[in-house]
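Figure 2 data, in text form.
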Amino acid sequence: MMVNKLSLINKKVTENAPEFIKACEERFDSDVSAVVNGFLSNPDCDIVLLAGPSSSGKTTTAGIIAEKIRSSGRNAFIVSLDDFYLNKEDIPLNDDGLKDFENVTALDTELIHKCFGELIEKREAELPIFDFTTSSRSEETKQITLKKDDVIIVEGLHALNPVITDGLDEKHLYRIYISVSSRILSDDGEILLNKRNLRLIRRMIRDYRHRNSSVENTLLMWQGVLSGEDKFLFPFESYADVKINSFHEYESCIFKNEALKLLSEVPHSSEHIEKVEELMSALNLFSSADISLLPEKSLLNEFISR
C-alpha cells in the first residue's frame, strides 16, 4: 500500500529509513515488472512508446524496462524522440516569439514515420542524433538492426501523440504513460505537495546538478513546460495501454536539504518568490533522509546523485 501522508512518511523515515526506502523501491520495481510482463505476453508488439510529463523519470524507466526485456531473453534498444528535433532555425515559435521546443511540430515527424516504418518492415533503420550543444542535428547517425524478437523503446513527451505513429501498424505498438500520480497530504487531507510541485522539485535539482541551470531559470521555464504538457501530452494520456506511477514515498525526505538550499538562494525580489516560499514551507515539514541511503539503481538518481 502506498504511503502519501506526511505523518506516516516522517514516521517511517525516522523509525527505519533504509527499510522504508527498500519497500518503496521494491514497489516501483514490481509495478514496472508487471508492465513489462504484460507487454512481453504479446509477441507482435515490438515498439514500446513511453511518454510522460517533465521529471517523471522517463529516461531511467526506459533503461529499467530495457534491462527487464533483456533478462527475458529478448534484446531492447532505446530511442529518444529528442533526437528527431528539427534544427534550431526550423523550430516553430510560441506566442511570445520564443522557440517552442514543447510543440510536437518541433519534431521531424516525416523522418520519424520513415525510421519507424523501416524498423517494422525492414528491421533496420538509420536514426538521427541531435546535438544539444549546437541545437542542430549531428552529422553522425545511429544504425539499428533488429532481430526477430528485438524491441524498440521510444521515450519522449510526445510518444503517445497519434502524429508520431500515424500510418504504423497498431499491432506492433504498446503505449506506456509514466508520471508522478500521487500527492502528499497532511493528516486532515490538505494537499502539501501536489503532483506538479513534486515534479518541479525533481526538475530544479536535476537542472542545477546536471544542466548547470539555476532554480530561478527552472522556475522561469516551468510555466511553458506545463503549458506544453497541457497541449501536447495530457490530451493523449488515455491512449496508454498502461500507466506507471513514478512517485517514491520517501523522495521529499531525500530531496529536502538540497532543495531548501537551492530555494534559499533565490532573491526575495524574484518574481517567483511566492512559489519559492510555498515549496520551502512544505519541504520544512519533512524529516530528512541522508542521500547516502539512496540506492544506486533508484529512479531518483536521474535527479539527484549520491
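Caption note: The chain has two domains: 6-30+184-302, 42-178.
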